[in-house]
Write a structure and sequence with these properties.
By secondary structure, the chain is an alpha/beta fold.
């Protein structure tokens, strides 16, 4: 009986064979420890050997044509039928194999056109039980980085990775290329990223004696499908010139997918050339290169590794088409390291290539010491993940299974989509629905916040529409209390046209205890309908600009596009207004309030802006445009520049200075006289600890041991706080974090003063430290301590040491509170994520106790292995 864990490996090669070759090399290593089943999505080239121990299942083959359109590679099956068959086969194999590991090559960082078969597979893996597979992405060293929609592509990839994947294996030596260098999402990537080293074919050849080189040039072009013919044809023409002065041979390897007409043309061109041979495919390119004098090729992943391992003098002509910069990126890196020479495709001609080959024959490539053991390291990582999944790391209540079942199950998704379709004029107007946030009140209700993409009537464009779904867990239909108000709002939204294309904005399923509410409904914020009406917005902003005394000779927008930035019914709404003509002004943001909170926010922000303008020394804040009392909304101008949080994702030489300036900015805020923004509400440590307790009050119902640890931790924090010297309260921002610190032209700008209060200044320092921890952990970056030191260099001169000690206590409390927004309830790694954050809070507390000479407190939180091995990671 085979007791090895099973592994299902999905690989789709669409234009060449590089992805397939690398996947087979990886699968060969995995087969030593796993039962490997490879789902092959493209044609399998003749002559390509499948390693022993791998079962290959060929799906109906798909690929891209010359225009990058998805096509069927089997003439017996059209595209639509092939896609249907593939999805059916994939799910059948998954359910019959019940794999311990689901390994997917490239997606979601590529293969967007195959999402229709991969997302259902990932959904099934997510809700699978006994065993639920470890889901991992297998990724090459460098990603394409110049798509027209690159930012939205990266953001979407991060969201899918965070939702479905347990780990990302980047098959690169981190010294050569790291994922964050070609992947820049605005959404933090929370999935662990492991750089495994390069995955190369047939490592046995690496230690074999190197044979003597022959006077031969090897010309290759990968699979032969993507822009191969110009390189191959030019090489043959160059050989005709080269033979006039050099006694040398040339072997041209076209690739198995070179179109027949191109093969015939190259055959005719090379037919009478002595010493020139033409081959469609060779089973071992490395062996060919080890005996050659020179190589001319593109610069795909596998070809580049074969060049490096063989030591052959190489000229690469990287594939370039549209925005595909992956090969050029790799080639330039290797060129800077002295490993090969580069010729750009646009500069290629027979004469130039002849000259380059002659120079190449004198070129001595540098030997590089790169990690080529990616397959072996990947095996170790996957074995560890499978073991952890089997033994389980955290004891949790069955309630979490119920909650995540409501949020994630295929049945819930189907019911939600059916209900939304019924609210629209046509079912095909509804696009994907993305779950972005969830809230739980144990024993009462569960709320899911979705972004639904809805097609704009009469166009092919889609717009995002926020949706809130509430499940009552206590059997009470609490939304009935506000039904009249919602009905009135819905009628107004329909009259003003802001409900479109929805014909109705609510739906109820009593048998599910389920209530669906579509933006702009919110009984607590009845002004939301008006503030989404472009006509009202135009008039309101015109009046606001006029009242502010803005220059009247500047043309004013005659209309605005309205976007909902944040839709949290009963809590918070933020809207964005963009002029239809950019030349007539910039964006304006609208923040809605209830009661007198808006007037207070406007007053405080204005007074702080006035004081900083006089005393800030390079620090400013966004001055609100206006407070519109009848709409209870504060209007803010848009900012140029970028938040510090964005700079922290890709730390450069200037980030240290930005952190120091952020520290100086906070120091300036703490010097702001209380009378400037008075009256302000006092807020002490006890109030902050109580807020953290309330924010995490759902955790005990799901993770009882972690709930007990949180209670003990907060109690201990209160005790320690009473032992520390105190100082008078100052003006405090109370939400000081990197996304509220903007690096703008000529100065640093602070935003969002809604929570400001009179408090211990240590509160802001502790919160900012937690924000830095989470940022550096999310992007797997080193240098956290140095970042904190730079911040303190700007903040701490003259600050009492006791303040920094109290800041560590606020850090503990903030780590507990941050467990809610930082670890989504619908993340299938939710439990381990919560344990890591609370374990980090415990570590900070223990360090502080050590500094103060107090006995260390030990807490029970999850499995001991979680705390000891991962407690130092937020």
């Amino acid at each position: 009986m085979n007791t090895r864990p099973s592994l299902l490996f999905y690989c789709q090669h669409s234009r060449g064979i590089g992805h397939l070759v690398r996947s087979l090399a990886l699968a060969a290593g995995l087969a030593e420890r796993f039962q490997v089943v490879l789902l092959n999505g493209g044609p399998l080239p003749k002559g390509l050997k499948v390693p022993v121990g791998i079962k290959v299942i060929d799906l109906p083959p798909l690929g891209f044509d010359a225009n990058m359109q998805l096509v069927s590679r089997d003439h017996r099956c059209d595209l639509e039928r092939a896609q249907q068959l593939r999805q059916k086969i994939i799910l059948e194999i998954f359910h019959s194999l019940r794999p311990n590991v689901l390994l997917i090559e490239l997606f979601p960082f590529g293969r967007k056109k195959f999402a229709n078969e991969l997302l259902p597979l990932l959904e099934e893996a997510r809700i699978a039980r006994r065993p639920r597979p470890v889901v991992v992405c297998s990724l090459r060293d460098i990603l394409v980085g110049q798509r027209r929609d690159q930012q939205s592509h990266d953001d979407r990839a991060a969201e899918v990775a965070n939702r479905f994947f347990d780990a990302i294996l980047v098959h690169s030596d981190a010294k050569f290329a790291r994922l964050e260098e070609s992947f820049h999402p605005q959404t933090a990537l929370r999935v662990p990223v492991c750089h495994t080293g390069f995955v190369s074919r047939d490592q046995k050849n690496s230690v074999a004696p190197r044979p003597a080189r022959k006077p031969r040039v090897i010309v290759s072009a990968g699979g032969g499908l993507t822009n191969a013919e110009p390189l191959l044809r030019t090489a043959i023409e160059a050989y005709q010139l080269l033979r006039q002065a050099e006694d040398i041979e040339m072997k041209v390897i076209t690739g198995p997918f070179l179109p027949a007409e191109a093969w015939n043309a190259l055959s005719a061109l090379s037919r009478r050339e002595k010493g020139l041979s033409l081959r469609r495919f060779v089973p071992d390119l490395l062996a060919e290169l080890r005996t050659a004098s020179a190589s001319v090729s593109q610069c795909g992943y596998n070809t580049a590794l074969d060049i490096l391992r063989s030591g052959v003098p190489a000229l690469v002509v990287p594939f370039e088409q549209g925005n595909d910069d992956e090969q050029m990126n790799r080639a330039r890196r290797l060129e800077r390291m002295g490993a090969l020479r580069v010729l750009e495709q646009k500069n290629m001609s027979a004469q130039r290539l002849t000259e380059e080959i002659r120079a190449l024959l004198q070129f001595k490539p540098q030997a590089l010491q790169l990690d080529l053991n990616g397959a072996q390291y990947s095996v170790r990582i996957l074995e560890r993940l499978v073991h952890e999944r089997r033994v389980g790391k955290t004891r949790f209540s069955p309630v979490i299974t119920t909650v995540q079942g409501l949020l994630l199950s295929a049945t819930t998704r189907r019911v939600l989509r059916d209900q939304l379709k019924a609210l629209l004029p046509a079912p095909n107007m509804l696009g994907p629905c993305r779950l972005r946030h969830a809230r739980l009140r144990p024993g009462r209700k569960l709320m899911g916040y979705y972004d639904a993409r809805v097609r704009v009537e009469g166009t092919e464009r889609y717009r995002v529409r926020p949706i809130v779904v509430t499940w009552r867990l206590d059997g009470k239909a609490a939304w009935l209390k506000g039904r009249d108000a919602l009905t009135e709002m819905q009628a107004e939204a329909l009259r003003q046209g802001v409900a479109a294309p929805f014909r109705q904005l609510t739906a109820e399923l009593p048998e599910w205890g389920m209530h669906i509410q579509v933006s702009p409904l919110d009984a607590q914020f009845p002004q939301l309908v008006r503030l989404l009406d472009p006509r009202h917005v135009r008039d309101m902003l015109a009046a606001a600009h006029a009242a502010s005394g803005a220059a009247s000779d500047r043309p004013r927008p005659d209309g605005y596009a309205v976007t909902s930035i944040r839709y949290l019914p009963g809590s918070c709404h933020v809207l964005r207004y963009d002029p239809l003509h950019a030349a007539k002004g910039g964006a304006v943001f609208a923040k809605l309030y209830t009661g007198q909170e808006g007037a207070r926010a406007f007053r405080v922000a204005t007074q702080v802006a006035d004081w900083l303008a006089e005393h800030g020394e390079g620090v400013a804040t966004v001055r609100p445009l206006a407070y519109v009392a009848e709409d209870r909304v504060v209007l803010y101008p848009g900012l140029s520049g970028a938040p510090l949080s964005k700079h922290l994702r890709r730390p450069g030489p200037g980030v240290a200075g930005c952190l120091e300036r952020a520290g100086a900015a906070l120091h300036a805020l703490h010097r702001l006289p209380q009378a400037v923004a008075s009256p302000l509400q006092p807020h002490d440590f006890a109030a902050e600890a109580s807020m953290a307790a309330r924010a995490s009050d759902y955790i005990p119902a799901l993770l009882p041991s972690v709930g007990a640890a949180i209670d003990a931790l907060l109690d201990r924090a209160r005790e320690v706080h009473e032992r520390l010297p105190q100082e008078p309260p100052t003006f405090a921002h109370r939400d000081f974090k990197s996304e509220h610190v903007w690096i703008t032209p000529g100065q640093l700008t602070l935003i969002d003063f809604d929570r400001c209060c009179l408090a211990d200044p240590a509160l802001d320092v502790g919160k900012f430290f937690v924000d830095l921890q989470c940022s550096y952990a999310a992007y797997d970056q080193s240098g956290l301590e140095q970042a904190q030191e730079r911040f303190l260099a700007g903040y701490a001169p003259g600050a009492p040491e006791e303040r920094l000690l109290r800041a560590r206590l606020y850090e503990v409390v903030e780590l507990v509170r941050m467990s809610v927004p930082r670890v989504p309830l619908f993340d299938h790694n939710w439990a381990s994520g919560i344990v890591r954050l609370i374990a980090r809070a415990q570590t900070v507390m223990n360090d502080l106790e050590l500094v103060l000479g107090l006995p260390a407190t030990h807490y029970c939180c999850g499995e001991p292995h979680d705390l000891s091995a991962r407690g130092n990671q937020p």
